[in-house]
Amino acid sequence: MKKRLPIGRSDFKSLIDDNMYFVDKSMLIKEIIESGDVLLITRPRRFGKTLSQSMMKYFFDITQNNEYIFKNLKIYKEKNIIEKHLNKHPVIYITFKDLKSNNLKKMHDLLAMELSRLYLKHKYVLEVLDNEEKIIYDKIMGREALDADYENSIRSLSEYMERYYGKKVIILIDEYDTPIQQAYLHGYYDEIISLIGNLFGMALKDNVYLEKAVLTGITRVSKESIFTGVNNLKVSTVLNELFNDKYGLTKEEVEETLKYYELEYEEKEVIDWYNGYNFGGVEIYNPFSIINLVDEKKIRPYWMNTSGNYLIRKLIKEGTVNIKDNVERLINGEEVECEIIETMVYGDLNLNSESAIWTLFLFSGYLKWTSKKRKNNITMYKVKIPNEEVKDFFVQTVRNMLRESNININNILLNLINGYIEEFKEDFQKLTMNTLSYFDVSGEEPERFYHGLILGMSVGLKEKYIIKSNRETGLGRADVILIPKDKTDKGIIIEFKKFYKNEKTLLNSAKNGLKQINEKKYEEEIKNYGINDIIKVSIAFDKKEVEIVSNLDKDVELTEMEKVAKGMLKKGLDINMISELTNIPIEKIKNLYDHL
Question: What's the pLDDT score for residue 462?
Answer without folding.
Answer: 79
